[in-house]
Amino acid sequence: MAERSINDQLDDAVTELIAQRDPDLANADPMVAMLAEVAQELCLLPSESFKAQLSEQLMRRNEMTSPVQKLENLNVKSVSIRMCFSDASAAIDFYREAFGAKELMRLVEPGGKIGHAEIQIGDAIISLSDEYPDYGSLSPQSIGGSPVKLHLDVEDVDAFAQRAVAAGATITRPIQDQFYGDRLGQLTDPFGYTWMVSTHIKDVPLDELQKGVDAFAEEEAKKAEQSKKKGRREGFHSVTPYLTVQKAAELVDFVKTAFDAVESFRTTGSAGGMHCEVKIGDSMVMIGGGTGIPEWPTAIHLYVPDVDATYARAVAAGATSLLEPSDQPYGERSAAVQDPTGNRWYIATTFVPLQQIAKDLHTVTVYFHPVGAAKMIEFLTNAFDAEELMRSDSDDGFIYHAKVRIGDSVIEMGEPHLDSKPMPTAIYLYVEDVDATYEQALRAGASSVVPPADQPYGDRNAWVKDPFDNIWYIAAAIEN
Amino acid sequence: MFRRKDLNEPPTPVGGISTFCAKPFFSVTFFRVRSFIIKKPARGTRLSRVNESEERLLVEAAQKDPGRFAELYEQNFHCVYAYIARRVRNRTETQDLTAHVFQQALANLEKFKWRGAPFSSWLYRIAANAIADHARKRSREVAEQPNIASQSVAETDFEAVERRARIFREVKQLPEDQRKVIILRFAEEQSIREIADQLGRSEGAIKQLQFRGLETLRARLSGKQIAAE
Fold it and tell me: Which regions in chain B score pLDDT beneath 70?
């Protein structure tokens, strides 16, 4: 020890000090001990880059706040949030449950109507009320949504969203790391308001932000180009179920009442029946048929914010219960009903964010019950370039549950067992090239019903029937 | 302003914030052995270089035009950082809390009223609160020592804070070779080997420069000059 040079002795001490440990100076040279004292104070010496970055950050904040300071001359003291609800009392309950809101006060009319209430979420106080149309107070449900978004900055966006979803919110934009340094997603509450939720991960310098914006714009342009190429009508995924039943109008009413379906289009179909298009969540569903037209009822896996509530509404709207809501071991709470026109609806709410269960799983997913599901997967692969995502089967090849992806959509299937039986289904399938896919489907074993032709409603399509009696409308929008 | 008791107690640089420190007792023992002369300045006593009227003008200018806050930041950065570093003893947390203090100060600048106490004492108060909040949060997370005592501003040994801030500032005035080594070693926390590689010199030479750098700093702090390089 003694023969170590004072330079080495001092460095030993410095190494310990930097690691926040106690140096052994018992045998050290007195000069080393003195300098170690200086070194001890030098630990955590601020780096110049930190000092400069903080300065830059403070000045940037300044620039952002200065316009506000100019406005102060107009005597604006504050801006606050006022929200209107079709059921303000239910909204307060929901925000308490979902966002940890605290009710501060409520003023109630003798009839029970909330004229004014205040809740606190984080550091914001929000005023809210029931609807007062005469005073211009209408809820998003009355006016078809709200263009104003609210933004919640939370400590753990994933946990927060999970709790909100459990309380009845829907994830309308998946939670992802964003180029601007936030992990962010979007929730829509049961009352029609949209909430951005985010957790700040890191600060991003201004020039990198601009690069991020440029990259984003490029990506969007690419997407637009691609969807143009795909020739898909706006709002449609690759796979759209075509529920064909004799009492089509009744079915449309049912999905509106039970599933909040929004009708976007109704006309007379080519076979003389009705053709109607509705949107359920993020998915389009075609409904059609009429007296004398063959029926193609369908099984649908439907994701909703609150399975119990939807189940109750479906039953109240005339559906027959197949399975009461119950928790499933695979991360869902699910129920099943059969609607009055014969379609089966497997209704589910996930405990985990949707995108973790399967990428591209939409609100509406078609569910097949084919006999010989393995063969069907083979057919879909050959005919439509389907990609198998998962398969749960027995030793002798009986498939309980399988998922394949076609285009941007997932379809699911399970061989008939217990009370399920084959349900030949009609699917409207958007592809890039109708003629090529039509040929490919025939080679894979489908039979032609109607060869490719341009339709007056703007699509080119062809109809084929697969070996399992499902009808596929192979389609692409005609480019202008 | 401060209680009699404070005068009789040795400075406790780690205070009660032992949860922050990998080595909670080191400072106590170290400083006691070396026993500084303990003179506690009254709260708000000025030790930095700007005089009062100058500082007052700076603050008032920044209150009118936040762009001028940069000068207050430059003036006070090392003191605030040193104040926090003494008690938090972790680089990331020190940086986060320092940033927080200046952000708060900037956001609330118009609320600052000149009452004779230096601007830094206001910053120290913000820092003390931030450290206390941070400690509470930490103790909840770590679920230990529910009562983490935090020093109030009044209990702070300002002389030690100012001394450390002065060491930080003095680093910039070191001869270039010494300065580079001291910065890489203490701010970037590089090893002697890494510094030797980076500067293209032998490890022995780096150790020598480290020694000389610390020696120069010590001499400057005690007011003596030694022949530099």
Answer: 1-50, 141-156, 223-229
- Domain range annotation of chain B: 4-41+50-163, 172-221
Q: What integer best gives the mean pLDDT of chain A?
A: 87
Distance CA A303, CA A449 (A): 32
- Structure tokens of A132? 């007062």
Q: Are domains B4-41+50-163 and B172-221 of this chain identical in fold?
A: no
| B5 burial type by CB count under 10 A (0-12 exposed, 13-18 middle, 19+ buried) | exposed
Probe site for chain B from A9, A31, A44, A58 (most B CB atoms < 10 A): A44
CA distance B119 to A77: 27
Cβ-based contacts of A35 with chain B (< 8 Å): 211, 214-215, 218
Q: Which of A37, A44, A66 faces B66 most closely, judged by CB atoms?
A: A66
Q: Which residues in A have their CB inside 8 Å of a CB on B? A: 6-8, 10-11, 14-15, 18-22, 34-35, 37-48, 50-51, 54-55, 57-59, 61-62, 65-66, 69
- Residue of A20, A55, A66 with shortest CB distance to B23: A20
Name the CATH architecture for the domain at A235-477. Answer: Roll (3.10)
**A81-204 and A235-477: same fold?**
yes
Sign, CA torsion A254/A259/A264/A268: negative
pTM of the model: 0.41
Residues A259-277 pLDDT 10s:
888 888 888 877 778 889 9
Question: Contact B207/A54, CB-based, under 8 Å?
Answer: no
Intra-chain end-to-end CA distance of chain B, in Å: 46
CATH for B172-221 is 1.10.10.10
CATH of B4-41+50-163, one of 1.20.210.10, 1.10.1740.10, 1.20.1290.10, 3.40.50.12650: 1.10.1740.10
- CA distance to A111, A234, B51, B79, B101, per residue, from B153 (Å): 56, 63, 21, 13, 14
Q: Which residues in chain B have Cβ-Cβ distances shorter than 8 Å to A43?
A: 85, 186
Q: Give B65's contacts (C-beta < 8 A, 6+ positions apart).
A: none
CA distance A414 to chain B (A): 47
ipTM of the complex: 0.73
Q: How close A10 comes to chain B (CA, Å)?
A: 7
- CA A89 to CA A367: how far, in whole Å? 38
Give the domain A81-204 fold.
Answer: 2,3-Dihydroxybiphenyl 1,2-Dioxygenase; domain 1 (3.10.180)
Q: Do B102 and A58 touch (CB under 8 A)?
A: yes
Using the Cβ of B63 and the Cβ atoms of chain A, whether some distance falls under 8 Å is answered with no
Domain positions in chain A are 6-42, 81-204, 235-477
Mutate which of A9, A45, A49, A72 to test chain B, going by most B C-beta atoms within 10 A? A45
